[in-house]
Design brief:
Blueprint (H helix, E strand, L loop, with lengths): L18 H27 L4 H5 L9 H20 L10 H5 L23 H21 L2 H34 L23 E4 L2 E5 L15 E5 L2 E4 L5 H9 L11 H10 L7 E4 L2 E6 L2 E4 L11 H10 L7 H10 L10 E7 L25 E5 L15 E3 L8 E2 L3 E2 L2
Parallel strand pairs: 8-11
Antiparallel strand pairs: 1-4, 2-3, 4-12, 5-6, 6-7, 8-9, 9-10
Helix pairs in contact: 1-5, 1-6, 3-5, 3-6
Length: 418
């Protein structure tokens, strides 16, 4: 997902700054933001061995080593190569290995074969990151005001892009560890954040015309614009996320075996994949357990359910006699502040197809490939998860996945039209 016209990083406030001090403050802010995000990536992979960083457990996931290299290539390709005079790529083959899907940027290695790239070694990727980090910091510190004004929006794109990959690092390694019969722990201290539940969960949105989408020039991805007016309601939304206890009731009532609850493609997928429970759940010693970033743990009935596909979420809603909300209903409800755990626990499926807003136009150049070409056959999720980096959430954010995907931290809340 990519921005259209993000705002430049705001200068730090100083009393009556001179032009030179103001410029220095902007530079320092960009450097600090860059190093903080790059450091978080290294923090998330510090506990992984070279073998851990190599594994690709399925075509939809990527090795941690690849994530580290790809996010580095992004800065090298779109900032250093374009704007840093005299910069030479760290390695002539890395653009081919670590480009993801930017056709305009050149040929690239096949996504499903990323786990085959045993060379370059993990330590060479570390050297690559350090090289690009040093070049970026030097470039920013030596850039004049005119150049900073041009590159600051691209910096924001690169930093938010890397934060997206930070979340994928957690979900991808969790999927990989879940395939290991020893169920290893990524972080023994990891804990799911506590959730909030209201005793009176339903609240109403009356019929009305509302503005949805990103309406100002603060950072956003281009799929969040243009802001536009839309009819929402009447509808009731549930303040609470669907819990594991509620999901166990769905399972115990035969929810996974009842074809009339499912979309045809969903029931076929569930049968083919032998789904009997959410992703990462295992029935051990007569008890349901879930694979977490801290290893295998008993399923907490009070916790929001996670790792469910759109197909499962839709079937559960039908079983409950309810619906999934549209993304517009979710956004309007979130603005009221009445949704518990809208952010920071699980992404929430909506029943809205991932399609362009009225008047949407992709940006020019390679970065225009980030969003627009994926606007088909996927569903929108709203909110964020506990794997989402701090500062990377907002009400207008539109995440999107295919309806069978469930390796992400994906859950749901319900809507009711009666």
């Amino acid at each position: 997902m990519i921005v259209t016209k993000p705002a430049a990083a705001a200068p730090r406030h100083t009393p009556d700054p001179s032009p030179s001090s103001d410029s220095a403050a902007r530079t320092a802010a960009l450097v600090d933001a860059f190093l903080a995000v790059r450091g978080e990536t290294e923090h998330r992979t510090a506990c992984l061995s070279a073998e851990d960083q190599q594994i690709q457990s399925m075509p939809d996931a990527s090795p941690a080593k690849w994530h580290r290299a790809h996010t580095t290539w992004f800065f090298e390709q779109f900032l250093l190569a374009e704007y840093c005079e005299g910069y030479r790529p760290f390695h002539p083959d890395y653009a081919f290995l670590f480009n993801s899907y930017y056709v305009t940027a050149g040929p690239r290695h096949a996504r499903h074969e990323r786990g085959h790239i045993t060379r370059p070694r993990t330590e060479e990727i570390t050297a690559y990151r350090r090289h690009v980090d040093a070049a970026m910091v030097a470039f920013l510190r030596n850039a004049d005001d005119a150049r900073l004004k041009v590159v600051a929006p691209l910096m924001e794109v690169g930093l938010n892009h890397e934060q997206q990959h930070q979340e994928l690092m957690h979900t991808d390694i969790l999927h990989a560890f879940a395939q290991n019969p020893l169920f290893p722990s990524y972080d023994p201290a990891w804990r799911s954040p506590a959730s909030t539940r209201s005793a009176d969960p339903w609240f109403a949105l009356n019929e009305g015309i509302h503005t949805v989408g990103h309406a100002d020039d603060t950072f956003h991805f281009d799929n969040e614009k243009p802001a536009h007016r839309t009819l929402v309601g009447p509808v009731r939304l549930n303040r609470n996320l669907v819990s594991n206890a509620e999901w166990l009731q769905f399972m115990d009532s035969g929810g996974y075996r009842t074809a009339t609850l499912w979309l045809m493609d969903g029931f076929a997928t569930a049968a083919r994949e032998e789904w009997r429970a959410p992703g990462h759940w295992h029935h051990v010693g007569g008890q349901w357990q879930i694979m977490t970033l801290a290893g295998l743990k008993p399923v907490d009935p009070e916790a929001p359910v996670a790792h469910v596909s759109y197909y499962e979420a839709d079937a559960f809603a039908r079983w409950a006699g309810k619906h999934l909300p549209t993304e517009m209903e979710w956004e309007v409800a979130a603005r009221t502040g009445q949704l518990n755990d809208a952010f920071g626990i699980v992404w929430q499926w909506t029943r809205s197809a991932y399609s362009p807003y009225p008047g949407y136009r992709a940006i020019d150049g390679a970065l225009g490939e980030y969003n627009g070409k994926f606007m088909v056959n996927q569903l929108v999720l709203r909110g964020s998860s506990h794997a989402t980096p701090a500062g990377h959430s907002r009400i207008t954010y539109r995440n999107f996945f295919y309806p069978h995907h469930r390796w992400q931290f994906t859950g749901l809340r319900l809507a009711d039209y009666e």
